[in-house]
Structures are given as structure tokens and as C-alpha cells.
Design brief:
Chain A: This is Zinc finger protein 511. The complex is a heterodimer. By secondary structure, chain A is mainly alpha-helical. Chain B is mainly alpha-helical. In chain B, 69% of the residues lie in helices and 0% in strands. Classes of the chains: A mainly alpha, B mainly alpha. At the A-B interface, helix 1 and strand 1 of A face helix 1, helix 2, helix 17, helix 20 and helix 22 of B.
Chain lengths: 292, 463
Amino acid sequence: MYCGFSEEYMKSSGNTEEQEPRHGELPFSFTPQCVHLHRDHELFEDGDIHRHMYLQDLYTSEVDDKPTLSVSEFACHISGCSAVFSALEEYEHHYNSLHRHVCCSCRRSLPSARLLDIHIQEWHDSLFTILAQRQDMYQCLVEGCGQKFRTSKHRKDHLIRIHKYPPDFRFDKTKKDKGIRETKRLQQKDTNMEVVDDVCESEGVCEVMCGVLSDQPEQGESMETHVSEEEAACMAKPAATEEHAGLSAAVHGNECSSTETLKPRYSYRVPSTVCFGHGSIRGFRGRRGRRK
Amino acid sequence: MWRLNKVRHKAGRQGDSLEELRLKRREHEKALRQARRDRQLVSKRLLLTEDEEQSEVTMDTTSGEQDVVSLFHKLQHSGPEREAHLKALSKALRDPSAQLTFIKQENSMHLLVGLLTGSDAQCRLQAVQCLHKLSHSPHTNVAPACLPATPYLLTYLSGQSTKFTELCLYTLGNLCPDSDAVKEKLLAQGIIPALASCIENQRYNLAVVEAVGFTLSQLLQAKDAAEKIIPMVLASSLPSSLLSVLTPDPKFGLAPAIECAWCLHYLACSSEYSRELLAHGALLQCSSLLLSLGGAVAEGNREEGLELLVCPLLRCVGNLLSICPVDSLSSQVGDVRLVVSLCALLQTYIHTQPALARETAWVLNNLTAHSSAVCSALLTLSLVPGLIQLLPFSQGINTMVLRVLANIAHKKKEFCVQLARLGLLSTLCATLKMADQEMVTLSLEVLFVLLVSRPQADNIPCS
């Protein structure tokens, strides 16, 4: 578990009855402490007011109509994502939709583990590219079908003909689409995109499978997850700066006017070599496909 | 409680709609909050007689002022009508501008003091009524004008007439906060020893006890109270007197206990001197009272105004715990089942008065910080599940409750095992996702301790 908390959250040591000796390197330093509150402390404000209302003959036992108790909000702690939620279920839906099946190399979020696996294979695995020249490697996306195809075009045809998929299925973009967008994007000279450029170019011919925002067909490589409308509504904090992380750009993309091109943005606060395990923005999956 | 009853009565009578009343209260509350932020939160009390309560205060300002002037002139002649004139003056002086007019009259205070100290007992009573109205003035220059009367008011505190003594006390209590000059004079004239002997001699006269408590609380709220006033009070017999009247009388009501509890709170806040309070047994007394009050609340007692007493008691216990030496904790706190009462108070107030619930959680933190016995009691008495259920609530409640749970976890491995068995781990899965950074930090700390204490590497049942 990655824990990087600033000094202000470390408590000073007091007299304790801890059963463990203090771990020198670990940042866990909580010690049970008494808290002394001075007379004017803000924790005492409501009680003081209540007291003085009583002294001034304004006491009432009836509870005022104002709602006084509030419930804690939940917030996504993935680096760069600033989404806030009022219920745990909303948070979990957000996390499962946007942060779970994320490709470590190019940070695309896929809807399922299987599609992620396929994506990594087809995008970032050089061995796959080699093998695909000689055998049918492109799996049908429908689970249980089991068929494989020589090219992604064949697979796409199969999906449309046999499984009645729409021709513009989001999770099966062809290399051609990706290429066009890639050039467009490169022309924008967005320096924040270095990681992905690097990865995608080096893989040669490969297909992009990624979620694209439904309202932004050719707006430039979205690279982000598809975000449902309700989720977009939930996001409380709009990104103001360029450095705002990639995944939340999806949301802002949704909220932006369509004239604005969606520029993927990344936060590089965490070193790129660090991975946070399965399901996080930089999962251990797909490491093999990273830049050489 | 006589004061509460009077509020309701008055409100109904004036024909204000409920909504207007609520609006007025909210405005007033806002003003008080601002005053507190400016460190100028001051209240005065007005004691009214039965007929004064009944009569309306609807006269317009100019006629009131004229009344005051003419009454003043009339009072300069002795005679049987003097008492009636004084009564009328007292009524007229309820109006703030009339108060100003009166003190501007030359020798008005001199006259009043003369009547206050004269041979006619009824005139004395009416004179002190007039002074009492003046002391309640919102204008700060009225109090200094009343200074000539204060040595006599103090002298009369050792008298035997209840109503008279009460009026003297509330008058003094109202005068205290108005100016430093007034306060200095009162201290020099011996207000603290006077209060000390008054409450001691009249301890069975609960109306007087309440009045002493109020006056003392006014003194103790002064900005510089810690420098002079608090040491003087602690050196006197006041602390033990205050403690002895802390248990509310079922017939008279909570009012005297409320005043005394607030005095103790102001005393306990000053960290340099509160050790002396410990020596008086304040922690023991306040905790046992909290224990019984909490028990009453748990049984469904919803006596009006109970929180006005619970609040200062909680604060006393909380602050005294923070300066209490760890080895004397068990003797100072007494019955460890105090935690049952505290948890009952927490559950009762969580929705109706969350700020009070937060203060209760604070006391629990201070109780559990250095006592394994208390932590063990929380577990044995099945109080922890209730605490875990409070973790969704913000405004500082969940952070404080999580601290309490962290305190328990840090005591022993067995406690950690029990906490885990009660479902704390899965709750932490939720609290780790909260927006409040302190909650996340504390959750990690607790999680760390729980994991370190596990007998073997078990599966953790959450993402």
C-alpha cells in the first residue's frame, strides 16, 4: 500500500501503551492523546451559543428545522482524480468504471478484465505482433465465441455479421481511426502526451480498443474512459489547470463545449515506474508491453 | 425550570407567529455567533416580578423618558408615595433610552443609593429593582454610572432577604462584563469573598445559589480572567461550594446546577490552574453526575434543558482528564461505566445536537487515551458496535470516534482482534474512501495496527 503523507499528519509522540515498538521507517505514528480545549475553541461554539440563548431567555427545546447533521463525503483518491461523492455506492461505481481495468502502458480504461487483456496483447505485446503475422491471433470479443482472426478487420466483420455488433463499436476501433487521430493529436504538440505517444508508436501496427466519449467522435484521441452522464454530473470539481490528471479529463471532456478539443492530460506526480497493483491506474498488467 | 416557563409564556402572549419567532431567534443566534468570534459574547439577565411580567412594555420612548425625569423630581421629596414612585420608576427604566436619561440627571444615582441604603425596607427593594433595570442596559456607559451603588450591593449579599439578595446578585452579575473599570472596582471591593460567603451561607436557598453562580460565571468569562480572577476564585471556598450544589434538586430544577457547572467549566479550561480543581475532587464529582445523567437520558428522560447541564459537565470532565496524571485516573474517574452514559449521550444527541455529540466523543477520546480499563469496558459492555455506526457522520464526529477506536486498538493485541471481529475492517474500507483527509489518515493508522496484530495473514474482506 502506498502511503505518502506529509509531515503535518504525523502526530508527535506522547506517553503511550503501544504494544509494538515504533517502526522507524514506517509513517504510522499515531499515539493516543488527550486533547485539551481552551475556552474559545471552535468545538465549543455551539454549546456556548446555546448557553447564552438560555441566559437571554431565548431557549427553546424544540429542534430547529435546519438540518444539522451531515454525512461524510467520499472522494476518489487516485492520483489526479478529484471526484467527490455523497454515497459510497456512487464512489464504487465511479472507481469500477474508470479506474479498474486500466492499461498500465497507455492508461486506457477498459470495461472488463478480458477486454483489458485483449487490449494489452494487441497493443503492447510485441510477441503478439510477430505471431499475428503467421497465425490467427485476433480473438472475437464476444466471450465464449472462441474464434480467432488474422486481422482486426476480419474480426470486426465477424462481430458485425455474426454477433450483430454495430459497426462503430467503441471497444473495437481500427488502426486507421487511431492513426488519423494520432497525427491530429501530434500536430497539437501537447507535451503532456509523451508517455502515450512513445508507447503507441513503438508498437507498430496495432489496434486501439478504447472507450471513446459518445459525444466526441473525431475530437482527437480521447484515450479516456467512457463516462456516463450521471457520473459527469457527480463530479464536483472541474479541472482548472493543465496538470489535472488524465482520467478526469474524460469528465471535463463531457462538460466542455464540443468546440474544445479534448486534450488528454496527465499528472506526473507519481514516478512512472511505480505501479499500484491490479485495478489501479497503473496496474502491473501490461508491463511487458511498455516501452523498450 | 422557572426561566424556561417564562419564555414560553411570553412568546405566546405577544402573538408572534411561530415563524416570526423562529426568524427572530435565528437572527439573534447569528449575532451571538459573531460576538463569540469577536470574543465579546456577553449576556445579561433580567429578573422580573410577577406583575412586571404581566404588564406590557409598550410605552413609547418619549413618554418613558419624560416619566423618568418627572419621577426623579418627585422622588426627591420624602413621603408615603415614594415607594409607588420608585415602582413606577423601575417600570420606566426597562426602556433603554429612559435608562440613559436617568443617569444623565444630576445626582440621580446619589438619590437612588440613598434610597437603597435608607431605613425604609420597601424603598430599598424598589431601589434595587431600579438599579437592576439599569444594570441590564445595553448601553455600556450606564454600568460605570452605577458604581456608587456596588459597595452596598456587595454588603447586602450577606443579608437574609432572598429576593433582595437575588436582585443584588443579578445586578452585580450584569455590571461585571461592561467595563474593565467596573470589574477592577468590584474585585477591589471584594466581590469574590462576598460571593464565596454568600453561596456558603445560603446553600439551601437555591434561587440565591443560582444567582451566585450566574454572577461568578460573568466574572470568569472576562478576557483576562486567567490572570487574576481565576486564581482568586480557586483560592477561596468557591470550588467546593460549587461542587456541593452540582447535583440538581428535583423540585427546584436544573438552574442552579447549570450555573455552577458553567463556572466549573470556565475554571477547568485554564490549564495552569485546573490542577487545583482536581484536588477538590471535581473530576470525580462531575463524572459521577454525568454517569447518572447519562443513565437517565438512556432511560428516556428528556427533561428540558438537560443539555444545558450536560454540556459544561462534559467540558469539565474532558479538560480535567487531559491534565489528570495517568496513574490517578482510576481513582479520579471512579466508575468506569461512565462510558455507558457517554455512549448513551452520544446516541441521543447525534441527530438533535451534533455539536454536543462531538463534545461527548471528545470526552471519550480523553478517557480512552491512557486507560486500558476504559477501553476494555467499551468492548465488554458491547458499546463498540454503536461507535462504529457513527463513522459516517461528519462535522468532526467521525474523526473523534475513530480516534477513540484507534485508542482502543493501540492498547492490546486482543483488543484489535475483538475490533476486527466486530467488523471494523470492513468499515475501514469505507472510511478509507472518504473525502476528509484526517479520516483517511486515521483509517490507515487503525488499519495498520489491526493488521500488525493479526495472528496470521488472513484474507482481508474488502477491496
